[in-house]
Amino acid sequence: MGKKSTDYRDHLSVLIDFIPDPVVITDQTGKTVAKNKTAEEYANYSRQEIAGTSFQGRFLDASSLKENVLNKLSAKDLGSQELKIIAENGDFRFMESENSKIELDDEVFNLFIFHDVTERKKTEQALWKAKNDWELTFNSVPDLIAILDDKHRIVRVNHAMAAALGAVPEKCVGLHCYSCVHGTSCAPAFCPHSKTLKDGREHIEEVHDDRLGGDFLVSTTPIVDEKGRVTGSVHVARNITERKQAEKELEEYAKQLADTQVRLVNSERLAAIGELARQIGHDLRNPLASMKNAAFYLKKKGNNCTAEDKARMLDIIDKDIMRSDKIINDLLEYSGEICLECGECTPRSLLITALSKVQIPECVKVENFAFEEPVIIVDVDNIQRVFISIIKNAFEAMPNGGTLTIRSAESNFTVRITFSDTGIGIPEELLPKIFSPLLTTKAQGMGLSLAICKRIVDSHGGKIEAQSSLNRGATFTVILPLKTQPASTSSASFTEKDPLLHYSQ
How far is Cα 58 from Cα 21, in angstroms, rounded to an integer? Predict the structure, then answer.
């Protein structure tokens, strides 16, 4: 190689250093003759390391070339290619090359000028990945999805929609949605897409379509261009056939359940009427029989009846009339309306008055530990009737004597009044039903006393509870709010729980 050629190369090396892009010059065998500083930085090799080495081996990822570069070295114009430039540390950059031949002192060289397109390639790859992910997601959704333009034409469909239409996605593009979905020549009146095009808002409709084979929940979401104009919509149809079928079955089941409930209520009502008739018949028959016998005695004796016998027979009739009257009054009281007339009082004052209205057996001791505080607002007469009933029951549970202990306590805006006796107690199997009507263990009475007590306490917004062990006494607790709002409590509110009140209304 002559001195002149060497000078050209030196001048060329200086000149290419001024080019900001990487530049490489090779001879016809592919060995590097010159490389500018930018190329050195990209390849991470020094100029001494590069000199005389293979351009392809040092800088190019041969797998990225469509054809081997060396096969083109004899061509007049190598043209443009996209390559990978590999650095010593293994890093690479995507480069777009402009390739040409130059002649220096009758010797031909290859000139490669590279433009770094790594960021562009990364952006393209990211866009490709995003597009691929979007298409994968779009086609994986089981809902029927179509993108429609403002002329009701299909722009794109997912695989589920295409399968429902019996075509591949590409064959659906350009078709009118109403034609291929509904088989009509125009959009139906309920079409949510038409509504979205009109007002630019999302719309949802439930649609039954035999062509698609079921019921669908169809929604349309507007697609808006940069000027705010609605250019189409995303049309999503979710198959709700199974849900609609389940709803239909549930409605039928609810209807059957309602019918069963009506039959059950009627059955309970008839049973309650039968029990009521039996109880009334039993309780009224005894005093009626007694009165009939007394009347027969007076009639038979006539004028021969002594004054003493007349008085005794009339007393029997009078007591039996009172017993019959109580039976009827208890029934009317239980089934009738409770009207509260509330006033201020204290737990102790209520109990002192209630105790004064009952006859305390000589063998029973009453201990009243109720307090004067707090002041409560209740219907005094009705609450006293509750206390009197509980006290009388306690006395009857202690035929051989015992103690009735009454206490009161304030807690959480309520007052608790407890009645504890030392009587025979209540059988365990009867405790859950102790406040039910027609439940009694006595020879006389209809078993409405405690049921009436519960209604009165409930009407105050309170509770009544019972605890007992057989032969160990019983404790009844009445819990009342400190302030009861005066209100009329109709028996209608109890009829759903008590079939007896269905009959009494």
Answer: 18
Class of domain 3-121: alpha beta
378 φ, ψ (degrees, to nearest 5): -145, 170
- Angle of helix 307-335 versus helix 449-459 axis, rounded to 10: 40
Quick one: CATH architecture of 338-489? Answer: 2-Layer Sandwich (3.30)
Start-to-end CA distance of the chain, whole Å, equals 127
How many whole angstroms separate alpha carbon 371 and alpha carbon 347? 6
Q: If 0-12 CB within 10 Å is exposed, 13-18 middle and 19+ buried, where does residue 89 land?
A: exposed
Degrees to nearest 5, angle at CA 42 with 38 and 44 = 110
Q: How many Cβ atoms sit within 10 Å of the Cβ of residue 16? A: 21
pLDDT digits (tens, 9 = 90+) for 130-162: 888 888 888 888 899 999 999 999 999 999 888
DSSP secondary structure, 436-462, as one string: STT---SSSS-S-HHHHHHHHHHHTT-
pTM: 0.42
pLDDT, averaged across the chain: 79
State mean pLDDT over 478-487.
76
- State residue 12 phi and psi, 5-degree precision: -65, -40
Given a cut of 70, whether residue 50 has pLDDT beyond it is no
3-state secondary structure of 257: helix
On whether the CB atoms of residues 194 and 187 are closer than 8 A, the answer is yes
Distances 232 to 145, 148, 165 between C-alpha atoms, Å? 13, 5, 20
pLDDT in tens, 441-455: 665 555 677 888 888
Instruction: Could you please state the CATH topology (level 3) that the domain comprising 250-335 is classified under.
Output: Helix Hairpins (1.10.287)
Q: Do domains 141-239 and 250-335 have the same CATH topology?
A: no
What are 136's two structure tokens? Answer: 């994968």
